[in-house]
Design a protein that fits this description.
mainly alpha; 18 helices; about 70% helix; about 0% strand
């Protein structure tokens, strides 16, 4: 009997690419322009379809169901996003206060990696107005994804009234258009192993180990906080959906690896949507609303990052906060996470908004520029996985979690 060859999964190949990238960067200690170019090319190939993907998927999801259903799914999604983001900020404050990553670290030993200019702290009115585009084409060309999402929601709602009988030609055309965009992304993903290797190798080669050592405790605290918070997420989702926690972890591995390698929620979105549907059983009705919304509205990782970093900077400068100040930091980190850009390297921009609000020197942010890529990995994996876990909770609450995707030898319940 001839044994059938076992196909190596893309997850395994990407994992190997990351390991090889780290090894190559550490051994050579250099950033080769050609390798960096390959990594940037991979990012651009995915980014070129992100706006169309987000717009099309939201319009298709909302346009294909009743407006009342859209409201229920949307409200549940936003509520979970809000609660989890505040919990992430609270946990970040707790971790930084408990482990004190800034105590005992000499600022002189940290090499400033960038010049930082103050970000503008918007008022509540400006923030709310910023959600709504004055020109959708300008918002799309500028990559202002939250404005694109708002437009897509309105477009989808309008289309749902026209498509009430399911016979709208525009809707059917849009479904085909979305299939084409997904096919483009699938084609790009064949390049993922090379792209991931190039991104990791160039980043490690550029920054090296020497930038990590002075801030090793800071990175360690953030990494531990991220791990604990993700495990808490897995526990909650497993208890509510009755899916094995081991199975959940296994099925989010690919998207998590892509999140780590690209440090971008937007770039990871296509893989996240595919795996959420085909591996985790989140049906399209929920998947296409919750996950694109999560790119801008759910930033567990960003909220935790800002909370930990603010307190670390305060400890570096010998500043200590009372309880009311810590409450303010939680609120500041949670709300500022909404303004967190969904592209690599956006963390410094967000910090430039929140750090001065706590009376800390703006130039302190430059001390963390050297480890921004490593921080971005942690921030992105928590953002992406939290979006996916939220979609699972919402899908289960709406009886739209497809348990057929799970192996039959795992215990699960299909009824409440």
């Amino acid at each position: 009997m001839v044994q059938k060859k076992r196909k190596v999964s893309m997850t395994t190949i990407i994992s190997l690419s990351m390991v090889l990238g780290v090894a190559f960067g550490l051994i050579t200690g250099k950033n080769y322009p050609f390798i960096e170019m390959l990594g940037q090319l991979f990012l651009r190939l995915i980014q070129m379809s992100i706006i169309l993907l987000v717009t099309g998927q939201i319009i298709e999801a909302i346009g294909g169901i009743k407006p009342s259903e859209t409201g229920k799914i949307g409200i549940k999604t936003v509520v979970i996003f809000t609660v989890s983001t505040f919990l992430a900020a609270i946990f970040g404050v707790f971790m930084a206060s408990l482990f004190k990553p800034g105590i005992g670290v000499s600022i002189a030993n940290i090499q400033a990696g960038a010049e930082v200019t103050a970000g503008k702290a918007n008022t509540l009115t400006d923030t709310l107005l910023g959600f709504f585009p004055t020109n959708i084409m300008q918002a799309m060309s500028g990559g202002v994804i939250v404005q694109v999402i708002v437009f897509a929601i309105f477009f989808g709602l309008a289309l749902s009234f026209i498509n009430h009988d399911g016979k709208s030609v525009l809707y059917k055309t849009l479904v085909d258009f979305n299939k084409v965009i997904m096919r483009i992304i699938q084609m790009v993903m064949y390049f993922a192993p090379v792209g991931v290797f190039a991104l990791v190798a160039s980043s490690i080669g550029k920054f090296g180990v020497e930038v990590i050592i002075p801030l090793a405790k800071y990175l360690g605290v953030y990494a531990l906080g991220t791990l604990i918070f993700l495990l808490a997420w897995v526990a909650v989702v497993s208890l509510y959906t009755r899916v094995s926690p081991v199975e959940i972890v296994k099925r989010v591995t690919r998207m998590s690896l892509v999140a780590l390698a690209t440090t971008s929620s937007a770039v990871t979105l296509p893989i996240e949507m595919e795996d959420a549907e085909h591996k985790l059983g989140v049906t399209k009705e929920v998947n296409k609303i919750a996950l694109p919304l999560g790119v801008s509205l759910n930033s567990n990782g960003a909220a935790m990052h800002m909370a930990i970093t603010i307190i670390t900077i305060a400890q570096l400068y010998g500043v200590f906060y009372g309880f009311s100040d810590l409450v303010y930091i939680v609120a500041l980190a949670a709300f500022a996470s909404l303004a967190n850009a969904v592209v690599p390297g956006a963390g410094l921009v967000s910090l430039s908004i929140v750090v001065p609000q706590m009376g800390l020197p703006l130039e302190a942010i430059a001390l963390f520029a050297g480890v921004e890529w490593f921080v971005g990995m942690l921030r992105t994996i928590l953002n992406v996985d939290a979006d996916t876990f939220t979609s699972m909770l919402v899908a289960k609450s709406e009886n739209k979690l497809n348990y057929d995707v799970y192996a039959k030898d795992y215990q699960y319940a299909t009824s409440d």
